[in-house]
Model the fold of this input.
Amino acid sequence: MVLLGTGWIIAIIITVVLIAIMIGLYIFGNKLQSKQMEQREQINAASQPATLFIIDKKILPMKDAKLPKMVMEQAPKRYQKAKIPVVKAKVGPQIMTFICEEAIYDDVPQHGEVKAMISGIYITSVKTLHKKTKQLHQEELENNPRKKTMREKMMKKQAAYQKQLDYEIAVKKTKQEAKQQKAEEKKKREREKKITV
Done:
């Protein structure tokens, strides 16, 4: 029996540990992704259309955002200090504070009217109603050439990932609908066979 040097034994142990960690992270990531997809589906199911007039938008710590007391009580302590995109908007006669999805934060115009999908106090999508507002918003973004911060770069990446997630959810729904339709057609054919016999 050939004895391995201590360097080789240490290298093998480190390799095995690294492989185990990578497998654990892969499994954990898959669980988080499936959980996020389920939450996204629930948010989309509960969302309702509304017309909003945007008064102000900022990225603030959750504790400074003036959100309802119930929201602050339900949020974990570590998230209360985290910065979130907040939109102050007028809904009918009422002025409310909403949490905006980071992926669409740049699409929300300052001082403009938008058609939005809202789930509770969470804005999931936005469409600008007036072309003039949209043009002003585009000009504002183009005329403000500054170096993007790390947060803005990460938000852009998150927006791309969110679009990909939305696409995957839509594909999953169409596949499920196709399966249901095939099952219904099969049942219908079986019933027709029984009737003809």
